[in-house]
Sequence to fold (152 residues):
Amino acid sequence: MSRQHRSARTAASAASLLLLIAATGHAAVPAQVIHAKLQDPSTGPAVKKMEIILDRHVVKAGSVTLEAVNLSKTLVHEVLVLHDPGKKPLPYDAKNAEVNENKVHSLGEVGDLPPGHSGTLTLDLKPGKYLLFCNESGHYADGMKTELTVTR
Fold:
């Protein structure tokens, strides 16, 4: 790409941003990114259980992008996001060894990631506590869950 072409593209991008600011009254805020590692004992000798490891557990309200990577060598994983039910247990289907997704209000999910694959999910989160968990058969019961706190 020529220097002249790059300069023209940069100018066009800046002009688009200024138009957006003028139209909305404020600049677009990029999404905050949370990195999630989905792990199980096949990941490596240091991993003793199924787990979701977030690079941070607190973000500000607004646009949040979850970038999940399945580090497993053998298992499919996923991440569902819902408001934290607190002490109320999630509706668990023991026959299928999973949370009954028809009885919870999922805000979204990064679904069915084969070993080594990754995926993203962007949500507009309000202040509060959220539960992130894997709902592949048996994974939730094995502790593959974590909390996220969203502040003002």
About this structure: The first strand starts at residue 32 and ends at 39. The two ends are 43 Å apart (CA to CA). The chain has one helix and eleven strands. Residues 31-151 form a domain with the Immunoglobulin-like fold (CATH 2.60.40.420).
